[in-house]
Amino acid sequence: MTPVELSRTVLRAVRCAVDEGELSVAVPVRAVVTPPGPGGCGDYATNIALQLARPAGRPPRQVAEILRPHLSRTAGVAGVEITGPGFLNIHLEAATATIALVREILDGRAYGHANGRSNDHANGHAIDSGHDSHGSHESHTTPYGHTPTLTGQVIPLRIPYDIRAEVVADSLVRIVASQGGRAEVDHVRAGEAVTLRPVPAPEDPAPLGADAARWALLHPAAHDRPRITADHLAQRESNPLFRVRYAHARARALTRCAARLGFHGEPGDVPVDVPGAEVLVRELAGYPHALSAAAAQHAPDRLARHLVATADAFLAFQHTVLPLGDEKPSAAHRARLALAEAAGTVLAGGLSLLGISAPDYL
Q: Fewer CB atoms near the end CB (10 Å): N or C, the chain?
């Protein structure tokens, strides 16, 4: 079950409760589904009970208790728990969730982007309650159900004449566009107000080359002074940029090796006991949130750090993908390859938003 389908499931649960006389409310236009927050559990959570409590004239937890059985009866849902003031925490069947995630990433659209388009123009997943996207109502959802908080917004970025500010703003133009907004960059003179002022680099990063220079300026948080050193060029594990690009190149290499062995990736069940699989799935599922946070907080470092975490998870997982020795390719290998290819797709997309190349060979 994808988050899009899960959002529809939440709306159907509300509609069932209304039809059966358990709730007296208007079915909302959208149902928002997000990764669980602090104190939450499961794969996704929704605040729909808090949203409906006032119009229903009931406490949020009571509304949640009414909705829980309707959600629990849905195929693909392993269980539903109520936490906090009335959040519904939804556990999906592991295999179903992983298969849906990999399919969404590999379906040819830009995963995590507004309307599934690369470089077009908040946290959460949402879908309308039944409006036809070909009609008068326009739905701004990504292929994974993510509704960007910046859709249609113009974000002014007033920056000083500084190389780091220039690079951060350039990345934010693409990241904001990925969430449906438009960033407009203007330079300001001394004494004028700025909206984006990262700590300047201590020296010119140009000698590092385009990719390493951009990473050196984007990976640290805006309040941290970037390090302009040759460490960014080192091809070793201590270099985060190398790990991210190497992980992408390894994902592409696995596809080439599998083709020579006569098999291809196919989304399927990847058990959580496969080394690195559970963490990799979690990082891939969190990519849309990393994008929306980077855009909303004007912080491309959020995206850079998420790519590092994704790369590290992939590098722990990659050794399980190809058959060993005389072993024949199986459905398990095809499923693991598809997950590896999804990781490569996310890493390439994230690097592109930062303005950094993702070579297939490294």
A: C
The C-alpha R_g of the chain, in whole angstroms, comes to 22
**In angstroms, rounded to a whole number, what is the distance separating the alpha carbons of residues 81 and 202?**
51
Q: How many CB atoms lie within 10 A of CB 183?
A: 23
Phi and psi at residue 27, in whole multiples of 5°?
-65, 125
Q: Which residues, including other chains, have CB under 8 Å from residue 209's CB and lie 6 or more apart?
A: 233
Task: Work out the number of other CB atoms within 10 angstroms of the CB of residue 67.
Answer: 25
| 342: Cα within 13 Å, side-chain hemisphere | 34
Q: Let me know: does 88 contact 49? Beta carbons within 8 Å.
A: yes
Average pLDDT over residues 146-154: 71
Q: Please tell me whether the overall predicted TM-score, pTM, comes out greater than 0.85 for this model.
A: no
Cβ atoms 182, 155 nearer than 8 A: yes
pLDDT above 80 for 99: yes
Phi-psi region of 154 (alpha: psi -120 to 50; beta: other; left: phi over 0): beta
Question: Residue written as tokens 């040759």?
Answer: 230
- What is the pLDDT at residue 115? 65
Residue 87 in this model has a pLDDT that exceeds 80: yes
